[in-house]
Amino acid sequence: MIVIFDLDGTLIDSAPDIHKTANEVLADEGLGALDLPTVRSFIGHGVPHLVGRLLGHHGISDEARAARMIAGFGARYEAAVGLTTIYAGAAGALEALKAQGHVLGLCTNKPVAPARAVMRHFGILNHFTAIIGGDSAPTRKPDPEPLRMAVAACGGGPALFVGDSEVDAATATAAGVPLIVHTEGYRKTPAEDFPHVAVFSDFAALPGIIAARAEALEAVG
Ligand SMILES: O=C(O)COP(=O)(O)O
Ligand SMILES: [Mg+2]
């Protein structure tokens, strides 16, 4: 079946690099640094939202400044992988899923270029048939369109979405795609509150969860 993954907080812990880059663009504007938990809480809606929250934290609402910071973030972030880690077992789980015959796609609000760069860095890029980023469609998650695009680009048909956040939960619901929650990401509310078909904290469990869903679907179909 088709399995679409979110990126930040699901496959990789990119918050430390996003935090570093955020503080660099704040410094460019003469604004003070924010701590990691604060910046982490701003991740998941894409770069324009992140920049809006950084400025909002300083009590500023200024479109020209925001545009400059979005451009600055893009220029600095693409090369920022040094502090990012891939979740333990994630690469092995992707390999196992491919070996089981599943088609893998990515649906992130991160722009495509840095998404591809970090996936290449961790050696997982080639597992993915389709990569939809925050700049691939006119809308971003939680709008269902990017997720629908990812499923279609993987050939269409029954799909599962693996994500970590409230944004992913809303996207899955809107698109009608069952959600599997990675509990070690950036969510702010209990995973149990998300409409989900399964939760996991350890990637070793994921291939089994997906195999069970695929078998159940075959039994019904
Ligand atoms: O907010 C972002 O830039 C990306 O977050 P996502 O990979 O969890 O969609
Ligand atoms: Mg995420």
UniProtKB/TrEMBL annotation:
- Catalytic activity line of the entry: 2-phosphoglycolate + H2O = glycolate + phosphate
Name the InterPro entries for this protein: HAD-like_hydrolase_sf, HAD-like_sf, HAD-SF_hydro_IA, HAD_sf, PGP-like_dom2, PGPase_prok
GO terms of molecular function: phosphoglycolate phosphatase activity
Q: What class of enzyme is it?
A: hydrolase
Cofactors required: Mg(2+)
According to UniProt, this protein's pathway is: Organic acid metabolism; glycolate biosynthesis; glycolate from 2-phosphoglycolate: step 1/1
Query: Which residues are responsible for catalysis?
Result: 6 (nucleophile)
The EC number(s) given in the record are 3.1.3.18
| Entry binding sites for Mg(2+) | 6, 8, 164
Its family? Answer: Belongs to the HAD-like hydrolase superfamily. CbbY/CbbZ/Gph/YieH family.
Primary role:
Specifically catalyzes the dephosphorylation of 2-phosphoglycolate. Is involved in the dissimilation of the intracellular 2-phosphoglycolate formed during the DNA repair of 3'-phosphoglycolate ends, a major class of DNA lesions induced by oxidative stress.
Matching entries from NCBIfam families are given as: HAD-SF-IA-v1, PGP_bact
Q: PANTHER family annotated for this entry?
A: PHOSPHOGLYCOLATE PHOSPHATASE (PTHR43434:SF1)
Q: Would you tell me the protein name for this molecule?
A: Phosphoglycolate phosphatase
| GN (gene name) | gph
